[in-house]
Please model this.
Amino acid sequence: MANTASTIEKEAANNTDYEVRSLDTMCLNESEVAHPWWHNLKFSLVGIVFGIALVKGEVISWYRIQEMFRLESFHMYGVIGTAVMVGVISVFLIKKLKARTIYGEEINFTPKRFNKGQIIGGTIFGLGWAMTGACPGPLFALVGTGALVFLVAILSAIAGTWVYGYFRERLP
Amino acid sequence: MEFLSQPWPWWVAGIFAGLTVPVLLLLGNKHFGISANLRHACAACFPANIKFFQYDWKKEAWNLFFVGGLVVGAFIASTVLADPNPIQVAPALAADLAENGITRADGLVPADLFSWNELLSLRGFIMIVIGGFLVGFGTRYAGGCTSGHAIMGLSNLQLPSLVATIFFMIGGFIMTNLILPYILAL
Model:
């Protein structure tokens, strides 16, 4: 069992395009239709709405994150819980109705595989999340609110990602 | 307008965050995940012959556009839609922070911890630089962050994402309750 899993991981690690990305990012689905660059602006629009929600919902607040981990407030549990519920229902409906994109393309989902990273990396991320009070989305949003010192945190996070990439093959 | 500029209740913020998942899927089969952008930044700027960064990051440009919008949205929320009242802080947290000289609560984050001046202190350096590093290293090792695993992954009922989310929380509980008190006292 463990053998099979590590073989899959090794194969995946050797494949620098499709498989590695399915292991590490959620966004391997590329549109087959070629669009001019400005078509990407619709994603900026989604980002704007999401950014407003993060700030107005105080999800980017260091205080709210501390209260979550100190069990002093329900707020963050409510935000994440609601988001997950809305997401579960939406994905269920998209699958059930075989919904297509606005360009008529199929919507597909890639199953995630277990690996030790979800445990070790997950814990490491949690440590950092509680320190900065921000996961990656809020790090960017904080810069937008004028807390420019978080640019340093973003550069640090990029450095952390790079160091992970450098040691990737040698990590458990 | 007044409703918009007040802090939004948890369920409103949650609905908007959750709707990001189907909207991105319907607009172009895109899977919500913000930490991937940190990897794209590495791939674009310093791939350094590392296999992990050898891919066509331009094909993921949509995500960079998304983050660009995220920054603009945050700017709008903190200017046009700014809440004039000071942020509410749980009394127990405020008391613990005050013991370490963190008393100013005039923004969404404590200015006594996160500012350019504080960056030069040992405490601020650990919180911002080390904290940021752990976020970047940990998310990529875990294969996603709060958006990719906790929201997108759980929406698609992925068990590995549930494992990741549980360990995000474990890491957060350890830091906040066992380690942070010592860092804040620096």
